[in-house]
Every structure is written in C-alpha cells, then in structure tokens.
Amino acid sequence: MTAAATGAAVLTTTMLVPSLALAAKPMPATRSLAFRSLHTGEEVAATYLRDGVFQAEALDRLNHVLRDWRSGEVWQMDRNLLDLLYALRRSMDSEQPFELISGYRSPKTNANLASKSNGVAKRSFHMRGMAVDVRLPERDLKALHQAALALQGGGVGLYTKSGFIHVDTGRVRRWGA
Question: Which residues fall within 8 angstroms of residue 117, CB to CB, at 6 or more apart?
C-alpha cells in the first residue's frame, strides 16, 4: 500500500454504516478489531478508529493480515466492513479475535478459486476489499450467522460444513445452510 493511500486513511468520521445505525447499541467513537489468520498464523489487534479519527498505522496492520495470503497482495479494506465486523463481534459479546479464513482476494486468486468451485463468485466482493470469511471462537456458528443477519449490513453467507460465515458490505442478502 502506498504512503498516499495510507495517509488518506487518517480521516475524521462519525458516520456509521447506514444499517448499523439501526443496531441496538450506538457505535462508540473508538473501535478495535482483532484477527488470527488461519492460513498464515499471524495475529493482529488494532484500534482502527480513535475518538472518531481513523488510525493509518492500525488500518495498515489490519489490511496486512486481511491481505490475499496466496499472492501477498495487500488491499485497503472497506472501512464499512471493519465497522460491520466491530458491530458483529460486539453483538456476540466477544473479546476473541476473529479467525480469518479469507479477506482480500486478488482477481487472479479469485479466478483460480472460481475455476475450481461454483461456490466462489466470479465478481466477488473479496476482490474489492468488501468481504471476509470468518468465525468467532467460543461462539456458535449459527448464532454468529444470525447476529450478522440482524445487523443488515450487507451479504451474509453460512458455510456450515466449512465452519465459517461470509460477510460483505454489498446489498443485503443471505445464502447458505
């Protein structure tokens, strides 16, 4: 990620994802996330928003762990996605890091995966930094799925056999079993 892109990350905001404004608890001006990548073993815990100001270094650290682990390509993840994940973890009353299965995917990685499985969208939100596949330790997968659906923040998929949910900041929709 370039210095110009990260420099642009330090912006003041009090905006919420519109649908998150409907959540029962108002979103605080300071927000943190934590992830453990199941593919690389990397862990990150970062306060990406402090007193309404995005923190460039924290965003860089999150973007690095959420990168395409196959190619190493880093992408600036959608801040609304970060807020959606923050609200999801909060609604599950968890301090545990999300276990990350997939974050950003390069177009090449996505095309390769789509050629091997009809479960991979050819125009996936993963390629735009607007989607993740995660699970939350010590929380029931179906309960996590229901909590994500209740937030109405975008697409939510349940992959019971694989043990994860997909969340994105596209239009509200649902799939999976």
Answer: none
- pLDDT tens-digit series, residues 98-155: 999 999 999 999 999 988 887 788 889 999 999 999 999 999 999 999 999 999 999 9
pTM for this entry? 0.86
